[in-house]
Write a structure and sequence with these properties.
The complex is a heterodimer.
Chain A: H1 7-10, H2 43-58, H3 63-75, H4 80-92, H5 97-110, H6 115-128, H7 132-144, H8 149-162, H9 165-169, H10 171-181, H11 186-197, H12 208-225, H13 230-242, H14 251-254, H15 286-299, H16 302-319, H17 324-339
Helix pairs in contact in A: 2-3, 3-4, 4-6, 5-6, 6-8, 7-8, 10-11, 11-13, 12-13, 15-16, 16-17
Chain B: H1 9-21, H2 34-47, H3 51-54, H4 57-69, E1 71-74, E2 77-80, H5 105-117, H6 127-137, H7 155-168, H8 176-185, H9 203-215, H10 226-238, H11 256-268, H12 277-286, H13 304-316, H14 320-325, H15 327-330, E3 338-339, E4 344-345, H16 346-355
Antiparallel strand pairs in B: 1-2, 3-4
The chains are: A mainly alpha, B mainly alpha.
Chain lengths: ~350, ~350
């Protein structure tokens, strides 16, 4: 059975050679005698953009314009005018948007790092008003690149823009699955914050205290499994800052990771509030030393500040020497406050 | 720590001169942003102080002409387009642009800086038209779009609108309080800023946010609380890796361009002395490509974007200790100072501030 001709089959012939395009006058690009960084265009690109300028001039919006703009986008996905004209054409001819989204599924994978692909998708979703299937698509495309900034921003936009309870329902499980795959994926931690503390907060959710406790437990468990994970430590700070909780609330948890515990009996009882570092953990963990120093500084008083200074000293001289100047700055600032 | 190898200044200049001459078809994605590429190439020559030596006056004259030819006027005001990529050969220069060939706000910012590098007198600048264009780009939420009428918006366009207003010394086209509220909505719990509300903290957009906040004139209330400032500094310095380079996000690999984005944000916050400049220089030394240009990381291919930003980072963070200990290569690591707010050599920024504002009447 012969397969229907797809656009990629026909695009092998130049537009200039195709009889069905004979009525369009191609318009070559303006270029002066001394251009800066001229590009040696391929014949296909020159041909397609000549016809595109011709189409823009007449203002034609038709089925074949979709083919033409697709040709250009495949050669140069950053051609924002081709995207813009394509979008307007879709609207003008009331093209079926499910077909367009299907094409975008493919282009998103080919041009994952191009802003325009994601931008076009947003515009389409605002037209269809059907965000449901998108979450699955995004989850799939994160399998190709789990930290792609555009992909994550698109997911955040989608959730916040439609802000529909059904859409949010599976989000925490999704983040959890992403973090199980890679607990160091900062994009996933960031997304968790967005879900739990920002746009994901649902109306009538009165038990915020319970949610904060749940999140503290969650991040502590993850730190206990992989202590040297800056993303998790930042998330812990984020929870406390956002909810105006004192850092000292997690002092007992942090202490063993800073390698300063003097009490050997902590392993007897498994304390769920304060899961200890795994036995093979590389300690001390510099993020924990930093955290403990921050706790001391925030608690204040001469003794506490001196303890903070000792910790910063150890970071500057031993555990985090690349930031030596930063730790010395913290020491200077703290000393000022003690003297005052 | 091993000795710093020399910085191959002439080779890096040659890399950018080659790109200015012509680009292969593989660079086709630059078609809609050629003005920015021109800025990174000519800017590299400026940072290296090799513009006079490596180019002829006729080249510089031709470049100025090409840039002015991209200034275009129409229903949304005047500004610069990326290149004539949408301009038909037969269009008369005085014809208004179509909706698909409008000025672009990021290209306008880079065009103005490049003209300042080329010491243009800006007598051809359509200032009232430029103000109209900036006005046409601002959206209700305070953000700016890249081209009028588009939904394409992120913090970069906002910074460009601010930088242009600053260079014009005229803020009448911008609703600053809305714009500042938009910046605040991009702040993340980590202390950095994302490219849009709710997005992950990222080094490039954090520079953009911090620089924008410091470009706004006459603001009474401090734009960052002391605690916010400290958290941002903390996040920025944490992005420096033990090998000296900066990453753009928590847990990502180091990349040469973030040496500028994070490094410049720290400079603006008055915390530039907290960076390990020698380690930073060592990382960038290893990003040098053997045939010229700097790459995002050791072993990668170079491009003008990473070349310019690496040298801009070095202009703020000269490895002072290396200069003292190793006289042989010291000269190659010496730069003139950089203005971190505008991202240009101080001398160039001074020129921009002098000639871009409207001349006094009468
Ligand atoms: Zn980079």
């Amino acid at each position: 059975m012969p397969s229907p001709a797809s656009s990629s089959d026909t695009s092998s012939a130049l537009y200039a050679e195709r009889p069905e395009w004979k009525d369009v006058t191609p318009l070559p690009q303006y270029e002066d005698a001394n251009p800066i960084a001229p590009i040696f265009y391929s014949e296909e690109y020159k041909d397609a953009t000549d016809y595109f300028r011709g189409i823009v001039k007449t203002g034609e919006k038709s089925e074949r314009v979709l083919e033409l703009t697709e040709s250009i986008i495949r050669l140069n996905p950053a051609h924002y005018s081709a995207w813009q004209y394509r979008y307007e054409t879709l609207l003008a001819i009331k093209a079926p948007l499910d077909v367009e989204l299907k094409l975008m599924d493919e282009l998103a994978v080919s041009f994952l790092k191009t802003y325009q692909v994601w931008h076009h998708r947003r515009l389409l979703l605002m037209l269809t008003g059907n965000p449901g299937p998108e979450l699955k698509f995004i989850t799939e495309s994160l399998k190709v690149d789990a930290k792609n900034y555009h992909t994550w921003s698109y997911r955040q936009w989608l959730l916040a823009f439609f802000n529909d309870d059904d859409l949010w329902a599976g989000e925490l499980d999704f983040v959890d699955a992403m973090l199980v795959q890679d607990v160091r994926n900062n994009s996933a931690w960031h997304h968790r914050f967005f879900v739990v503390f920002q746009s994901g907060v649902r109306e009538g959710e009165t038990e915020r205290g319970r949610i904060v406790r749940r999140e503290l437990t969650y991040v502590k468990q993850n730190i206990s499994l992989v202590p040297n994970n800056p993303s998790a430590w930042n998330y812990l700070r984020g929870i406390l800052d956002f909810n105006n909780l004192p850092y000292s609330r997690v002092e007992d948890f942090v202490r063993p990771y800073a390698g300063t515990t003097t009490d050997g009996s902590t392993t007897d009882l498994v304390d769920l509030e304060n899961p200890p570092p795994s036995t093979n953990a590389q300690l001390p963990c510099s993020a924990a030393i930093e955290f403990l120093a921050d706790i001391h500084e925030k608690e204040g008083g001469k003794d506490r500040v001196l303890q903070a200074i000792a910790l910063w000293r150890s970071l500057a001289d031993e555990h985090d020497t690349i930031r030596k100047k930063y730790w010395e700055y913290r020491i200077r600032e703290a000393l000022k406050s003690v003297k005052e | 720590m091993p000795d710093l190898p020399p910085l191959a200044r002439a080779a890096h200049a040659a890399h950018c001169l080659r790109c200015l001459q012509a680009l292969p078809d593989s660079q086709i994605e630059v078609d809609a942003s050629r003005m920015a590429l021109a800025f990174y190439c000519i800017g590299t020559l400026d940072l290296l102080c090799l513009l006079q030596e490596k180019t002829r006056e006729t080249d510089r004259e031709a470049w100025r002409e090409w840039i002015w030819e991209q200034q275009t006027s129409g229903r949304y005001g005047s500004g610069f387009r990326p290149s004539p990529f949408m301009t038909p050969a037969l269009r008369a220069p005085e014809d208004p642009y179509t909706d698909y060939d409008t000025p672009h706000i990021i290209m306008t910012y880079t065009a103005l800086l490049t003209l300042a590098i080329l010491r243009d007198d800006f007598s051809r600048l359509d200032r009232p038209g430029l103000l109209d264009f900036i006005r046409a780009c601002q959206r209700d939420d305070g953000s700016f779009c890249t081209v009028p009428g588009s939904n394409e918006t992120d913090l970069r366009s906002l910074y460009c609108a601010f930088a242009i207003s600053h260079m014009l010394d005229d803020w009448s086209a911008v609703n600053t309080s809305r714009a500042i509220a938009f910046i605040a909505s991009c702040r993340s719990y980590e202390g950095g800023y994302g490219q849009a509300p709710f997005c992950e903290a990222q080094g490039g957009t954090t520079y953009i946010a911090i620089a924008s906040l410091h470009l706004v004139p006459h603001v009474q209330a401090p734009l960052l609380t002391a605690a916010e400032r400290e958290l941002t500094i903390q996040w920025l310095v944490r992005n420096q890796h033990p090998a000296g380079g900066f990453s753009g996000r928590t847990g990502k690999d180091a990349d040469a361009c973030y040496c500028f984005w994070c490094g410049a944000a720290l400079q603006i916050l008055g915390a530039g002395d907290l960076v390990d400049a020698r380690a930073l220089a060592m990382f960038l030394a290893n990003c040098q490509f053997k045939y010229g240009g700097l790459a995002k990381a050791p072993g990668e291919h170079p491009d003008p974007y990473h070349t310019y930003l690496s040298l801009a980072a070095l202009s703020m963070y000269m490895p002072a200790s290396a200069l003292a200990s190793d006289q042989r290569h010291a000269a190659s690591w010496t730069f003139e100072p950089l203005d971190p707010l505008l991202n240009a050599r101080v001398e160039t920024a001074r020129w921009a501030r002098k000639y871009i504002p409207a001349p006094p009447r009468g």
